[in-house]
Amino acid sequence: MNHVKGLLALMHFGTYGHRYQSRTIREHREELELVLDGQAICQVDGEQFVVGPGHLIWHRSGERTIHSNARSDDYECLILAFEIEPGRIATPPRLSYWDGIISPRQFCDDALAHFARHTAPSVDFCRYLYGCCKVHAQPVSTDRTLPDRVLHRALGFIADHYRGAISVADIARAAHVSESHLHTLFRERLGRTPHQVLVQYRMEEAVGMLMRKQPIKQVVNACGFESESGFIRAFKKKYGVPPGAYRRAEPSIGSAPSQPIMNLA
C-alpha cells in the first residue's frame, strides 16, 4: 500500500439507461470498480466475464474498464482511482468478489460520506481505502478450467435471473453440475454458498430501491423474495435494522453527499 500516492477519483457511477463503453487506464494509475447493482462485462486476457453486485475489478495501467453487456443492462458501481509510484505493480487479483461483514454498498456510502466531511483526502485515507479493498478481495479465478467454467456459468445465471424465483437447484442445472458439487465449488472459490451469493445480489438490488424511496412491496416483487415478511426478516438479519428504518435513515441516491473527487481523464 505504500506505493499509493493519492486518490484521483472517488465516485458513484450509474448507467441509468445509457450504454457505457470501456476506457483504458492511464499510466501510473490503479483503478477499482466495485459493482453495486446490475451487470456488465469485464475482459480479462481476451475472455469476457459477467460481473454483478459484489464483484471487485482491479485495473492496472493499460487495462480496460468494464463495459455494458449486449442488452445494455443498467448497473451501478463505486469507482476508486489511485495514483501510484512509477514502476510499482499491484498484487491483488484482477477479478475478485467482495467478502466481508460490511456490504459493498455500505462501503460505498461510508467512503463517500467520509470524503464529504474533508476538504481533501489525506494519503492515509487513500491507503485506507486501498487496503480495505485489498483485504475484502476474494479472488475469482479467470482460468478456463472445468471448475472455473462451471463457476462462470453459475454466476452468470445468478446475475441474469436473481430478480426471479430461482433456487440453488436452478443454478446447478444452469451450470450443468449437481447441487452438492455447486456448493463445494462456491465454498472453495468464493468462501460462501450459492444461496448466499444469490441473496447478496437481491439485497444489493433491494438497498438501491430503498434508497430511491420505492415502496417495500415493490422491492419484494422486484428482487425475487417470496414474501414481504421473509424479506424484512432477511434484511434485518443482514443490516441490523428493518428496511423501513434503513430507508428513513439513508439519503436518496439523487442526493449524494458533496461533490465526489473525479479525475478520470
Characterization of this structure:
This protein is of the alpha+beta class. Helix content is 40%, strand content 20%. It is built from nine helices and eight strands. The protein has helices at 104-116, 123-136, 146-161, 168-175, 179-190, 194-211, 216-222, 228-239, 243-249, and strands spanning 4-14, 29-38, 40-44, 47-51, 55-60, 75-84, 95-98, 137-139. Strands 1-6-2-5-7-8 form a six-stranded antiparallel sheet. A two-stranded antiparallel sheet has the order 3-4. The longest helix has 18 residues, at 194-211. The chain is globular, with a radius of gyration of 18 Å. The relative contact order is 0.15.
Give descriptors for this structure.
disordered C terminus; transcription; sequence-specific DNA binding; 9 helices; HTH araC/xylS-type domain-containing protein; globular; transcription regulation
Kindly report how far apart the N and C termini lie.
Answer: 23 Å
The biggest sheet, with number of strands, parallel, antiparallel or mixed sense and barrel status, is:
6 strands, antiparallel
Order of helices and strands: EEEEEEEHHEHHHHHHH
Share of helical residues: 40-55%
What's the count of strands?
8
Structural shape: globular
Average pLDDT, all residues: 82
Query: What is the strand content?
Result: 15-25%
Tally the helices: 9
Q: What would you call the structural class?
A: alpha+beta
Rg, Cα atoms, Å? 18 Å
Question: Strands across the major sheet, in which order?
Answer: 1-6-2-5-7-8
> Which spans of ≥5 residues are poorly predicted at pLDDT below 50?
251-265
Organism: Saccharospirillum salsuginis
Biased composition (Polar residues): 255-265
Pfam families: HTH_18
GO molecular function, one term: DNA-binding transcription factor activity
